[in-house]
Amino acid sequence: MIRDITIGQYYPGDSWVHRLDPRLKIVAALVFIVTLFVIRDFIGYAMAALALAVTIAISRVPLGFMLRGLKAIFVIIVFTFTLNMFMTDGETLFDIGPLTVTREGLYNALFMGTRLVLLIMGSSLLTLTTKPIRLTDGMESLMKPFGALGLPSHELAMMMTIALRFIPTLLEETDKIMKAQSARGADFESGSVIRRARNLVPILVPLFISAFRIAQELAMAMEARCYRGGEGRTRLHELRFRARDAAAAALGALFIALVALERVFADTIYGFLHII
Amino acid sequence: MSIRVEDLVYVYGEGTPYETRALDGVSMEIEDGELIGLAGHTGSGKSTLVQHLNGILRPKSGRVFVDGSEITARGAKLTGLRRRIGLLFQYPEYQLFEETVYKDVAFGPSNLGLSEAETDQRVREAMFLAGLDFESAAQRSPFELSGGQKRKAAIAGVLAMRPDILILDEPTAGLDPKSQSDILRMLGNIRKSRGIIIILISHNMDDMARLADRIFVMEKGRIELSGPPEDVFSRGAELRGMGLGLPEAAGMIDMMRDRGAEIEGRPLTLDAAELAIDRYLRSKRARP
Known about the structure:
The complex is a heterodimer.
Chain A: H1 16-19, H2 22-38, H3 42-59, H4 63-72, H5 74-87, E1 92-96, E2 99-102, H6 103-129, H7 132-143, H8 153-183, H9 193-199, H10 201-224, H11 243-264, H12 266-275
Chain B: E1 3-12, E2 20-30, E3 35-40, H1 46-53, E4 61-66, E5 69-70, H2 79-84, E6 85-88, H3 101-111, H4 116-130, H5 134-137, H6 147-159, E7 165-169, H7 177-194, E8 197-201, H8 205-211, E9 214-219, E10 222-227, H9 229-232, H10 236-241, H11 248-258, H12 270-286
Parallel strand pairs in B: 3-8, 3-9, 6-7, 7-8
Antiparallel strand pairs in B: 1-2, 1-4, 4-5, 9-10
């Protein structure tokens, strides 16, 4: 069950998207998200969806795998959709009991739903095609300029690397402890809320102890290899901005330009659509 | 008590790029009172297999019968089953959580809803079987015990369930030699006094040779070799091919045979090897 959550997961591959500079991918994902909020109509979203679809196709991440990530936040999407549908005033389309669906409400619901789906697919494409270690390398590099303001970019990146690295470990540990305790007759699924919370103690205590033990071992292993923070640290894989990254950046810029044009000339486009 | 496993298949992470076939058609049968050794390289599927025996994992296909009733059937009652099957995971000391050893060992029995008197009796019995001194250890925090004692406390926690089938996943891994031999001696005792099925997962072939009635050797999710220790350990080359070895004594006898010594039988323990070599030397002296 815990394993079904694919947000933040990496999908191993060697596509053009996988090989892009992580810094570019982070910036691109941020820009894409901002664009989604700038866009005001469905023509814009069609363009964004097309751009996303092409990128997904190039990345060769199976669509089914991406959609599984959406499943985890399905509730949020449905919630947003329903709220928007019923809570917007306007021209009445039809009634469901005491609830009224308006033309504007339906439009808003579809609009927000599309935005949310695109938002999540776009950002999960970043983590799906970028190894966590490359992702944090990219973030560290992007945060570097803020070092002058006292931002400890390397330390933040290292913390993030470690946290990402140990999520699966702790999940596995939880799984193991739950199995061990249920082999001793522990029951996590029935009883009142208070009882269930009490039943978590046999999981949480060993889990915390494990987490502290792992942290201590990791700290010792890092010190034994003379880790002393980011200053003067070299790396095995230097980030390099290559020709393909420049090409991707150009395509991204083209996308932004098209979206901006569409927004500026939206009225003209609608007028044109009315004529035909 | 008996266990029957039919053509078990289990796949981890199905439909993801990390998909692995952990069990690939495993069948086995275990009779009442047997001590079974389960050997195999890391990742061969041993731990996955035993987790099917008390219903913690559900197979993709295949069936498991405990005492003739199918536990893999849809809607099979598993709570009763888990009471009867004690499963001790690797490094079980990491599951200790109570303030005192007593309370931790009592966790299982109290989950069964037993009376306080019955629980007390079971805790004492389990600690005795596991080789922990009740007077000195019961009221201590499990976290101040030594590594070996922590392991014993965790084992006592499972024994307190009074299982009919006891499954131990590498119970001696990472312990000092004294604690290791304590735990193995304990297994021998439990078996003699209780006559329950014991399944022992181990890399240590000497332990297997000494304790097991039958040995199953797994590789890549399949059972590759099975039978009494004498049979399994006569396939030295195959075992080595799977990254496993022979008991020290058997390996030494094999080497002596390769150099022309005609040693009879198949001694697996040091004592048996000593006798066999002695016999060989005497017979050699007898015929000039």
